[in-house]
Specification:
The chain is of the alpha/beta class. The chain is built from 13 helices and 15 strands. It has 3 domains: 189 residues, Spore Coat Polysaccharide Biosynthesis Protein SpsA, Chain A, CATH 3.90.550.10; 46 residues; 89 residues. The strands form 3 sheets. Strands 1, 2, 3, 4, 5, 6, 7, 8 and 9 form a 9-stranded mixed beta sheet that branches. The protein has a 4-stranded parallel beta sheet with strand order 11-10-12-13, with helices on one face. Strands 14-15 form a two-stranded antiparallel ribbon. The radius of gyration is 21 Å and the shape is globular.
């Protein structure tokens, strides 16, 4: 077995469905196993995937063990010489895994490889490559200095802003959304540290890989789509405490008492300020009826074959028009608010390229033939949209 792909699912059945389809397409020339570990989802995921994807191994947990432990459970079932930890809210191009494995093998000291990622609107995700969160690096990030000087090696080390996003680099920290690791490396010290329930576990694993004498690489020659944040709710007090608490835990584990205490003080101040902002902001938020059916904007175009278009049109009754060629997109986007990109006729690589080309301009949805859902996200900090057809 060349590659074991481990995906932890939690209440994102529609995104996971599209993810698996893209992963299967990317595994065409590779001896691969796909392992999905479900963290006791409450959205009906188990029923949804019943008798679907016969070649995928599903592990259904009876409680939510968190990201780290669920991945480790998947790791115990894996037999591949290389492990890919992958988020369920991702879409891979067809040549992605071949390219990553080839790059991995070309580096003698490689312990792990990450990849260039974009969000659902086509914007580059800076967390694709990161530096270690030292006290000063974290201060720059939290104080806004990183945002003010995004390409500075001194102020923007958190996202390694001085390193071009379109070139391969040796980096300190990789994202757990797509983290390819040599199984031999994991065998030396295990997988993720289960002390971390969610967040910072990828920083910790990246750190331990380097400490063991291996290198982490950011691979920019392929790009994946990462809708981001679909398993968590942003802008909540719980998110703040979980995220920043994990960062403090990392610093406590790998640094001295003085640095840990200083870091904790900074984090506590940040939590206090952001908590006030959330409390002020939330009362003015428009309430959302969770039972309300999400619909596609009336002015939408679909790039699909005739059969897929008919299915989507009949089940949504919201579509504005259909186009069959990528070249036609420029002629219609001036009037279309949303574009549904279907596989086929488009490859997943084509879909990702189109979303990058028109980044931030339109609300993109993705649909694979013979699947039940449409998925999309136009803001990395907010919930995406999933529509069951």
């Amino acid at each position: 077995m060349q590659l074991s792909i481990i995906i932890v699912n939690y209440n994102v059945q529609c995104f996971l469905e599209q993810c698996i389809i893209s992963v299967i397409a990317a595994c065409k020339n590779i001896r691969t196993e796909i392992i999905v570990v479900d963290n006791n989802s409450t959205d009906g995921s188990k029923l949804f995937f019943n008798n679907r994807f016969k070649d995928v191994q599903f592990i259904w947990l009876q409680q939510n063990f968190g990201f780290a432990k669920a991945n480790n459970i998947g790791l115990t079932a894996a037999s591949g010489s290389t492990i890919l930890f992958l988020n369920p809210d991702t879409i891979l191009p067809e040549d992605c895994l071949d390219q990553c494995l080839g790059f991995f093998r070309s580096k003698d000291k490689a312990g792990a490889v990450g990849i260039r990622m974009i969000d659902g609107s086509g914007r580059f995700l800076k967390e694709s490559k990161r530096g270690f969160p030292s006290l000063f690096t974290s201060f720059c990030k939290l104080s806004g200095l990183t945002a003010l000087f995004p390409t500075s090696k001194f102020f923007a080390n958190y996202y390694l802003g001085h390193l071009p996003e379109n070139k391969n680099h040796e980096v300190a920290v990789l994202s757990g959304a797509f983290m390819m690791v040599d199984k031999k490396v994991l065998d030396k010290f295990g997988g993720f540290d289960e002390t971390f329930f969610m967040y910072a576990e990828d920083i910790d694993l990246s750190y331990r890989i380097q400490k063991a004498g291996y290198l982490n690489y950011y691979f920019a020659e392929s790009t994946i789509l990462h809708f981001k944040g679909e398993s968590t709710k942003k802008e909540t007090l719980q998110y703040l405490h979980t995220f920043y608490g994990a960062m403090v835990l990392f610093v406590k584990k790998h640094n001295g008492v003085f640095i840990c205490n200083a870091y904790a003080l900074v984090i506590q101040a940040v939590i206090a300020i952001k908590s006030i902002a959330i409390r002020i902001k939330n009362p003015f938020k428009k309430s959302v009826n969770k039972n309300e059916k999400t619909i596609i904007p009336a002015k939408a175009f679909v790039i699909s074959d005739a059969e897929t278009f008919k299915v989507i049109h009949e089940r949504t009754a919201q579509l504005f028009g259909k186009i069959e060629k990528i070249d036609s997109l420029e002629m219609v986007t001036s009037t279309g608010k949303a574009i549904i990109l279907c596989n086929p006729p488009l490859s997943f690589k084509d879909i990702i390229q189109q979303i990058q080309q028109y980044k931030g301009q339109y609300n993109f949805f993705i649909h694979s033939a013979n699947t039940c859902c449409l998925v999309g996200s136009d803001d990395k900090n907010k919930d995406g949209t999933s529509i069951i057809l």
